[in-house]
Every structure is written in structure tokens, then in C-alpha cells.
Design a protein that fits this description.
By secondary structure, the chain is mainly β. The protein has 4 domains: 84 residues, no CATH class; 145 residues, Jelly Rolls, CATH 2.60.120; 130 residues, Jelly Rolls; 112 residues, no CATH class. Helix content is 0%, strand content 43%. The strands form 7 sheets. Strands 18-17-20-15-14-21-16-19 form an 8-stranded mixed β-sheet, with no helix packed on it. Strands 4, 5, 7, 10, 11 and 13 form a 6-stranded mixed β-sheet that branches. The protein has a 4-stranded antiparallel β-sheet with strand order 6-12-8-9, with no helix packed on it. A hairpin with a 2-residue loop joins strand 26 and strand 27. The N and C termini lie far apart (72 Å).
Amino acid sequence: MIAQNRLGGSELDSYVRLFDAFGQELASNDQFNGADALVDYFVSTGGIYYVGVSGFGNASYNPNAPGSGQTQSTGVYDLLLEVELIQEDRVTLAQDFGDDPPRLPPQGTQGTLSDSLVFNDARSIRDVNVRVDIDHDYTSDLRISLISPQGTEVVLANRRGGDGNDYTGTLFDDEATKTIAQGVAPFTGSFRPETALSTLDGVSAAGLWTLVIQDAQALNSGFLLDWSLDFTLDNDIFGAFESNDTIATATDLAGIDGTGTASVSASIGDGGFGVLDRDLFRIDVGAGTTLQAAATSGGSLDAALRLFDEAGQELKRVNPAGTLDATITNFVFPEGGTFYLAVSESANVAYDPFDVTSGVAAQSTGSYTLGVAVIPGVSDPALVLSGEVSSFGTGSDGSFGAGAGASRTGLSLGGQEFLFDADNANAPILHFFGASVAGFTFRNDGAGGDSGIPVSLTDQSDAFNRRVVGESIFRGLRVQRSVSQGIQDASWWWT
């Protein structure tokens, strides 16, 4: 706001307010540059916003009621609006050895020290800088380099500094004004490395980063005190699902209207909120239906799932240890309505679904596939059905196999198991089922494997027969699989 400071001046003592689309005040300011006001606000959710300009004394008017408010200062003004897109996120990965720094070199006075950091953020690199603190009596003995997860080596310093001591608070940055060759030990400040760190731009940051320090000359030694990587990472704020961080901006899951199936592929860690990112999806379900949902990691994301009602109350949270995937099975909706499935990183599971800035920073990022099925009726759990001489197990995804470890049951006749190695609890699965529809394929491998679609199970056994039916919907096609046997049969039937 420019009033009293504008060319020609003004009598206006300005007051500025920012409102959302419902007229709720988000921010306000009275004086910033003298009597001129300024609002600097981080927009957490895309949409329509309103800027209200008034004079001092009229700061509490109702933006939805013309003529409301109080007597105010008056005068001419210039209103300057500026919107800046934030398309990057800065993350630091650090190693501080404290009171037990590694010796450089590890033995004697000549050799190589390597230290590695694992980064679980799969976003693309826009820029990377390296910080080091090294205690060494003769810096020109040292060749320092960084090796990326892709195996690219960047030489940071190659035997610089003459007979000087130490690297103290040294930052290797392509944008520095001085090269490392122009520096003097202890190299405090910013320096351009021997080879450009920009060779690492544009690739995924995820993986093993290794600092290699070679002490090429005998007689002197030292210690690596600490080192760190400062990443600037790309945020795809225009991604397909990147406005869906709250219930108010959730994405509709096409294909689910009372019942149905849907599948989407997206990422955690992109968008305007980086490591606070989560994706919310809206589903409308019928009364008495069962939800099956699976968030399958693309390889780096440690996924978690939450289910909310319309009021933002959490109904279910799945954040399993020992796996990168998260699955909600057999959740029954006693009443129909609108609900919200949320995918996030496993460390970020206590956020407020109405506040995009809430939560904690993710420890991993990356792609995922969310598969959702809402099936009529209530699903039975995984089960084993037994006759007098044979038995079969059905997993929660409709595949053969129930139970755990060596006690799993797939197809068993006279005590002999055919699908699992009874002597090996970690034996691979020897069965799957799947289908292809219009060029799209799903495959369910059972526990420990892939589950392409969620399945609802119904035990239809009676006094003379054992039968279980698994149902789902894939690409609009109803999928049904049944397995049955007579109580005295030595064989099984499945369709």
C-alpha cells in the first residue's frame, strides 16, 4: 500500500486486510512503512482471495456487509499486488561427529577416508552445495570429492592451501565469487569447487552420497569434524494432485459413487509444501459398504494412509513398520456419506487435514499408486476352510494363502501343502491371480507380494461345502473369484 509515501502524498493512514473466499480474515496490517500498510502472506491453498483497503479506525468492518464499519481516515492511495510462486524447497542433510570424529586418514599419514549419508528424498536437484569442517595440518595433502548416488564424482578441492591448516566452515558453492584455488587455508567462507556441482542438477536426490578425502602425502594427519549437503529441490506445484493437501481442496476419486474402484498415481514431496506434502482424495460411499485401500510405494516413499469423515475426524490410520506400503482392509461404513483418504509419508501422520502448514517434515519422498475399492456388503477376513481330507486358504486380496510363516495354508491335501514350503517361513509365493481389461492389468500375489486391487471376501460355506467368494471392480468390470470343495472332497474347484 502506497499512500503517504506516494508521489504527491496523501492524507490516508491506510489499513489492509486479506480475506478468503468466505470473508474470513487471514491477515491484516496497519503500519509498515510509516503510515502505509503491507501484508505479506503465504498462500497455502489455491483459490479466490480478497484484499480489503480501508483507513485507520475502520479495521473491523464486515466484508460481506456493505456500509459496515466505523469512521476512518481518508485519502488517495496506490495498491501494489505481487504474487510469487515458490517452486523449490531447501533441505539440509548433515553429519556431525561430535566428540568422536573419524581420523584422516584412517591409519598412518597417507590413505583415504570415505563417509556416506543416505537421503530418502526423490525430488529432482535444482542446486546442491557442500559444507565441510576438517582439522588437518597440511591442506595441500588433501583431495576432496563428492560422489552422487548415480556415481558422478565432483572434485571439490585438489591439494589446495600449501602448508596451511584446516578447512573451517568451508562452503563449496557454484555461485561463490572465488574459486577454491584462490582461497587460503583455513578456507572459511564460500568457494567454487574444482569441478561444477551443477553436473548433479536435474537428477533425483535419493540415494547414497559419499564424501571422499584422500590424504595423498605422508607425514601429516587430522580429522573430519563434520560435513553436510545443502539441497535445493524441485517442487512440482502444478502437479495433477497438488492442490489437494486439505479436505477443502481434496481431489475426487473418479469411479467411486456409492461403490466402485479407482486408481491414481502421484507423489509425496512435490507441490508447494515439499516435505509437508500430503494428498487427500474424496470418496462418496453407500451405507453398509466395505473399503479396501492400498498405497503402494514407488520404491523410495514410506507411505501412510489416513481416513477422515467430513468433519476431519480420523477414522483409521495405517502406518506399518517394516514395509513401504500401507493398506486399509475391510473398513465398514455403517452409514453412507463423503469421506476422505489421505496419503502421506510415515513420519507425517498427525497433521490437521484442514491446515496445510501443519504436520512434521517427511523423512522420505517419492511416487506411489493408490488403489481403492468400495464393495457392497461386509468383507470377511483372510481365512482357512477345511474339509475332512483337504483345506485351502484365501488371503485378504483374494489370492491363495492364509496364515503366517511356515504355518501358511494355500492348498493342502492330507497334510501336504502344495503352494508353500512348510519348512521355509520365507518361501516365495507360487500363486497369483490377475486380469487384463482394455490394456490395463492387475495382479494380486498375496501377503508379501503385490496387491493390484483390493478384494472383498464372503464365506459362503454350509454344512456340506466349503466356499469363499472374492469380489472387486477393476476398470468398471466386476471381478469375482470363487474357490470351493465338498467337505469330503480331495480336490478343489475355482472359477
